Amino acid sequence: MIARLLEGISRRGLVLLVLFFAAMIAAPFFANDYLLTVLIIILYFAFTGQAWNIMMGFAGQLSLGHALYVGLAGYLAAWLFTEFGVGPWLGLLAAIPVTMLAGAIIGFLALRFGVTGVYFAILTIAFAEFARLGFDHLTIVNGSGGYFLPVAQYDRNDLWLLRGAPVMFYYVMLAATVVALAVCRALLNSRIGYFWLAIREDEEAARAAGIDTFRYKMAAVVISAGMTAFAGVFYAFYYNNLFPEQVFHISRSIELIVGPIIGGLGTLIGPIVGAFLLTGLAETLHWLLGAIGIDVPGAKQVLYGVCLLFVIVALPGGVWPWLSRRLGFREAGK
Amino acid sequence: MTALLSLSGVTKHFRGLTAVDGVSLDVEEGEICGVIGPNGAGKTTLFNMIAGVFKPDAGTISFDGGRIDGLTADAVARRGIGRTFQLVKPFPALSVEDNVIVGGLLRRPDVASARARAHELLRGLDLYDKRHQRAASLTLPDRKRLEVTRALATDPKLLLLDEVMAGLRPTETDRMVGVLRDLNRETGLTIVLIEHVMRAVMALASHILVIHHGAQIAEGEPEKVVRDPAVIESYLGVESLS
Question: Which residues of chain B are within 8 Å of residue A208 when distances are taken between CB atoms?
Fold first, then answer.
């Protein structure tokens, strides 16, 4: 199983991958609290970026509404925990089918009736907005007032209930990121992955090769939504509060897609690289501007935007394809 | 014996224009049939109806013992019809090999066996050495052969080729003719090809359909068809007789 998963990775690639994850495992022993929270955010975006990349990077279906899946899963797991004492892992088992169903409904409405491209993207935004407005008025989770998980002092890390110190959340998200990477690789190297790429590249030609494009696009939406559910549950238990105006907001959907785009759409490593670059860049700029004493409101955002612009113009295919060539990996077609 | 592909009174209108008007054609198993006619005659529309891109407004299309008109393009492909496109449509960002693997997966259980089949076909069509290149980096003749290879990887009973010779130099045309003739002889593959390059049509086809303004004006053996006054008048031109 593991041997098959690693098949086809070059020795150098494998060494780098192992070194990277070894460093990530060791990081909490060296990082201070602040750096640890930054790393958690990075891993969170690496995970959600990978989930979103399945839809856009592999199957070519643009979703601008992934906040919907994060929010739905987060609210559901938080509600089950608060009201019934159901733990987050069991909550996840409920959240995954719910987000998959939401994805299936959106996917069906769009793909069955030929809503494609930007129109499809607009539909995904619309559903996230419905959810935002709906949850604003959903009294069982306190509407726009926000929903809070019970917080108490925990003297030990309870992995089963996801209650504990940031370092526990860090390792949970690190494990999730590794699992996501393995899942994405297995998918990409299987029948479904080839069919997704074919659909992304040319849908008419894909159909001429006998691919039921509706079915495989639906699969991409549903799998991506189900994966995103984990991020939602994590979000709820890490932050302990959920506000419809925050979790379902379109800016949440957007910030989740920038990483994979900067890192390299459709690549396996791109979303991870992108998450490091973006969060790293934001934190560096914050520190840098502080260090040289610039205190103009918005200066960080402007510089951040300029940096992104530079990356997009210089490396339109994303950072990872360029980086992997620099590191001497064979240029892969996918 | 019944024909592998049988068209009967197939008609397609686009708004006021009748693109294909009551075309009937029988293609026997193992034969190569050429479809010729001037630009805009409706050849590609006819192909698109066979391949499931358009549904005919009237008439029926039968293939391998069943009606296929009205099926979707992917369902038609699964029935056993492979096709190429007039404007080539390889999967540009994928490698040559991966392009063919996509086709091979239609009737194979896993990627490994699809890859094995892809290698076999790529060798046959002289693309094996370029298998790791991105399809977008290929020259036009290579891309055309890649499309044929990808279509063949789906193990079709019938191959529809839409102007695979167009834009090729004479030596490349001869090479393609050789490849197709070998495929037909060795595997018994039935081929219907739209073609303007008469040299290729005459070398390959055992049966020709001529359409003009959507209607069929001649059909039959190549030698007879090219001497048909109506065909010369509308398509070939007088000088072709000399």
Answer: 51, 73-74, 77, 82-83, 85, 89, 151
**Whole-angstrom Cα distance, residue B217 to residue B213?**
9
Range of the domain at B49: 1-71+189-242
In a domain, B151, yes or no: no
Q: Would you kindly state where each structural domain of chain A is located, as residue ranges?
A: 44-251
Note whether B134 contacts A333, CB cutoff 8 Å. Answer: yes
Question: Residue B77: which of A189, A208, A266 has the nearest Cβ?
Answer: A208
Residue found under tokens 């001649």: B218
| A262 within 8 A of A321, measured Cβ to Cβ | no
Give ipTM to 2 decimals. Answer: 0.92
- Per-position pLDDT tens, chain A of length 334: 667 677 778 888 888 899 999 999 999 999 999 999 999 999 999 999 999 999 999 999 999 999 999 999 999 999 999 999 999 999 999 999 999 999 999 999 998 888 888 999 999 999 999 999 999 999 999 999 999 998 876 677 888 888 888 999 999 999 999 999 999 999 999 999 999 999 999 999 999 999 999 999 999 999 999 999 999 999 999 999 999 999 999 999 999 999 999 999 999 999 999 999 999 998 888 888 888 887 788 888 888 888 889 888 999 889 999 998 888 775 443 4
Hey, of B102, B138, B143, B146, which one would you mutate to test binding to chain A, going by the most A CBs within 10 A of its CB?
B102
B162, B85 contact by CB (below 8 A): yes
In order of A148, A183, A235, the CA distances from A92 in angstroms are 18, 17, 12
CATH of the domain at B203: 3.40.50.300
B136 touches chain A (CB under 8 A): no
Count of structural domains within chain B: 1
CB contacts < 8 Å between A and B, how many?
Answer: 87
Q: Which residues in chain B have their CB less than 8 angstroms from residue A266's CB? A: 93
Residue A210 phi/psi, 5-degree rounding, is 90, 10
